[in-house]
Amino acid sequence: MKNWIHVFSVIDFISAGILLTAVAMNALRRLESCVKAYSLNSWLLSLLVAMTALVVGETHLYIASLVTFLSKGVIIPVFLRRIVKQMKVTHEVEPYISNAMSLTISGILVAIVYGSLKQGIFVTGFSRNVLQISIAVIFIGLFIMITRKKAITQVIGLLFMENGLFLAGFSLTYGMPTLIELGVLFDMLMGVIILGIFAIQIKRVFASADLDKLTTLKG
Amino acid sequence: MDPESYLYIIGTVFFLSGAIVSLSPVPRTKTFIYLLSFLGALCFLTFSLHLLFSPPQDLFSIPVSSFFEFAFRGDPLSGFFILVISLLASAVSIYSIGYAKDLKHQGLMGFLFNLFILSMFAVVLSGNVFTFLVSWETMSMVSYFLVTFDRDETSAKAGLIYAVMTHMGTAFIIVLFLILYKETGSMNFAEMKTHSAQIPDLLKHVIFVFSMIGFGTKAGIVPLHTWLPRAHPTAPSNISALMSGVMIKTGIYGFIRVVLDITGTGPEWWGIAVITIGAVSSVLGILYALMEHDIKRLLAYSSVENIGIILLGIGASMTFRSHGLFALSAIALTASLCHTLNHALFKGLLFLGSGSVMHAVHTRNMEEMGGLIKSMPYTGLFFLIGSVSICALPPFNGFVSEWMTYQSLLLGFESPSIVSKIVSPLGGAALALTGALAAACFVKAFGISFLGMPRSRHAGEARESSPFMTTAMGILAILCLLFGIFPGLVIRLASPVSFPLTGSTGLVSGLGFLRIDGSSTAISPAAILITMAVMLSATLVFFLALRRKRKTVYADSWDCGIPALTPRMQYTATAFSKPIRLIFKNIYLPRRDLKVSYLVKPFFVRSIRYSGEITPFFERYIYEPATGFIQRVAGKVRLLQSGSLHLYLGYILITLILLLLFGT
């Protein structure tokens, strides 16, 4: 009955989508688009979990999928959008390097991951690509944190990393116990709220949301 | 367990309660603190006599974990150093009753004072590596806080230099103990000693060199002495007395413990190296002391000199031991131990005296003192006794120990090796030079500070310090005289230490004389004293008889026709040391700067500015390049720490990628 999932390589398609949304982050110029890319990424993530749940037929995976969708796909993006709105002056991303360069480096990162994880471990065995993609998403998230000036983009980069981690854990173990997933999600939510508040406070105190200004704090 | 063994527990309780009482907010207790430390020191003094004349014994141990334990052990060697520390500590405690009254943070001073003395006892009583290092570091840290006690810029800098140097030394000590542990398989000093034969020769050399550097830093050998003239003057004077009198001796203790006791007999070059370092330290120490006008810096440099003299004795002992001349080895070791005790007494006395002087004159600069013997007669007298002792003049104690060191170096002729036949008499020559320069140095220190006319307003208004302070100095002065006239006392205290280390005694001593075994060399300070007294009174009687016929007329000193004598006409400290600066100009590398501005050249001078200084050789040519290099490297490393969040995240990314590529 669930053969179509295997026949059409649905899981590979969805994980490719996850990678693409992450890579797309490098090319986006406006903060709103970044938030949108993140929501899309989260939706795809929850869809992936749902598909796996269909294949395996485990109840806790359905719960995980639903909770992921609600928290990462709805609540966090809404919250992020509100923060972006509060930062009135500019909605530009302001990267340190050009978008072309940024895309190139992301490509190199993905290539490195694929190159070095050729003999990766595939406990689940339902896809040959999910682990590589998850690690690549972690790297891209970190790369975004490095190359973007604004505090809010740091938060989005971190969220991408978390999605990547979730995916990595999921691809290796069919998902962690529900309780741990819930705990991690709650942590994320709190983290985003605190970071959002910080971003706004940084903006208020330094009249800028650039983290460059924070170098004056070092001893 | 003997009843005497409980003495150290009682003593420790006294010190600890002294430390706790000082932290109490009640101001009345301030005298009480030092009374407690005095009693504690007396307990340890008695305990040290017990240790000296009984076999080595384990005192007690507290296990900390399966591997480490606090273990304390006493033997004659630690007993002797406890004797040295407790003798000085008891006198300094009395002194501090009067001295600490005018300090700013009295409670803190009392706390650190008690802890400092207790930590020194712990160092010499440690029975294993762990205990030793903990006590050693406690002592270093407490003394660091005492050096920076004034909380101003100079003391902060001195404290920094002290902390850096002492930790560098500790690093070497830790490494040498680790080598010992690896080779002997034990952390315990006693077991290390029994297994020391297993150590390969090469590692023995490493241990010797490392203990020379590590313990030498604490003792203040040249060229590791640079912290002494900075740290000792900035500490309050009662602490300077303890630091210079006994704390640097813990370095000597560590050296004797590791090299002579644990490692045992070494090759000849060890002794030669120690003699060389001792000779260089003593000559350079006293030469730099001569150029100082800061009375406490002068005393600190003189400590470098005396450590050199102690090392000359130890080095001679090691050389003799390597040739199997155990009797001579014992004489040399006894000499250096005696000098350790004597130096503690007279250097303590001199630092206490300088504290009294500073208390009255509010400066350390000798050029602003003068005439103090009239306003401070007791301090003057005791300072004079200390100066005479340190110059090694009979009948005081410095004479006896330097004479013994001198004799043992000259007896180096008897050794079979040509190298030590040459080096040890050369060390004796260096000691002779040192003695003469020390005399010049302390004629200057005493003469400029205490004689003549007051050179400043404060010096004119000086008052004698409190009876506690003069009593403490008096006790030390009497001990100096006592140990000088009856050297047998000290030798009997030192021979239980040198006997197990060298297997011989080598000295025959009565109460008032001593004779070197198997040679015709002998001396009797008591007889010298009697001779001196007889000659002095004969001269006095002669002059009185001569003068009886004449009438004595009292008048002012001749002032060259200028209306009144002023202090500016006096010999200054700089002028006094000028001849020596000229003779040794290749060592001092003096720089002089003369700036004359004229009204009408060349006859009418508006002003003359003269400034002169000697080149601080070791600072300029060793330490400054070294610190410069470290700072340059550190500046490069600092670029990593840019403060940019993005850069730090970048480090993480690069690390992750590298792990991914090469981790598997």
Question: Notable features of this structure?
Answer:
heterodimer, A: 219 residues, mainly alpha, 8 helices, B: 664 residues, two-stranded antiparallel sheet, 6% strand
What's this, in brief?
The complex is a heterodimer of chains A (219) and B (664). By secondary structure, chain A is mostly helical. Chain A has eight helices and no strands.
Structural topology:
The complex is a heterodimer of chains A (219) and B (664).
Chain A (H helix, E strand, L loop, with lengths): L2 H5 L2 H15 L6 H26 L2 H28 L12 H18 L13 H18 L3 H23 L4 H29 L13
Helix pairs in contact in A: 2-3, 2-6, 3-4, 3-7, 4-8, 5-6, 6-7, 7-8
Chain B lengths: L6 H17 L6 H23 L4 E7 L5 E6 L1 H24 L6 H20 L3 H19 L5 H32 L4 H6 L6 H19 L8 H7 L2 H27 L4 H23 L4 H28 L3 H36 L10 H4 L1 H14 L6 H14 L7 H33 L6 H4 L6 H19 L1 H16 L4 E3 L4 E3 L5 E2 L1 H23 L25 H4 L1 H6 L1 H4 L2 E10 L3 E10 L3 H22 L6 H18 L2
Antiparallel strand pairs in B: 1-2, 3-4, 4-5, 6-7
Helix pairs in contact in B: 1-2, 1-4, 2-3, 2-4, 3-4, 3-10, 3-13, 3-19, 4-5, 4-10, 5-6, 6-8, 6-9, 8-10, 9-10, 9-12, 10-12, 10-13, 11-12, 11-17, 12-13, 12-16, 12-17, 13-15, 13-16, 13-19, 13-20, 15-17, 15-19, 16-17, 16-19, 19-20
